[in-house]
Amino acid sequence: MTPPAAEPPTNAPEPALSIPVDTVYFIIDKLREYDSRDMLAEPVEDPRPLESEDVDVLREQENEYRNATVLQELHSVIDDLPEDQQVDLVALTWLGRDNCSATDWRSIREEAAQAHNARTADYLLGMSMASDFLEEGLSTLGFSGKQVDTEQPPRHTGDTP
Q: Which among 22, 32, 16 has a CA at the least distance from the CA of 132?
């Protein structure tokens, strides 16, 4: 008599992610770096204050310049991902945002696949707390802490390995 097959634990990914976990953590880090732009907008006391409109314009230009590289890198990394990996990113944010369980993964991923379009990077960049949702989604599927892998997403520095 053959013993019954063991059921997978409820926190196991169902099915496995098509996107490498390291890539998700890389994107989480970059999203957090991009989100930190709000901290740059804190007013600084100036002994010779400009008109408030001038200060706002200068701060906005400074923030745009500082974040242009991070924004470009996020767009490049996300846009260069295959469609199934982009779908995983969106599904992970939904999983983490809606406090779902790992057993909901399959249906959430199917919804994300149906909703997929060419604007995944814009969608994630426009979502408040996307980095937290991605991290929570990974945690829900049983991935915790940063994974160590030598294959990081390309940083587009112009250097070839």
A: 32
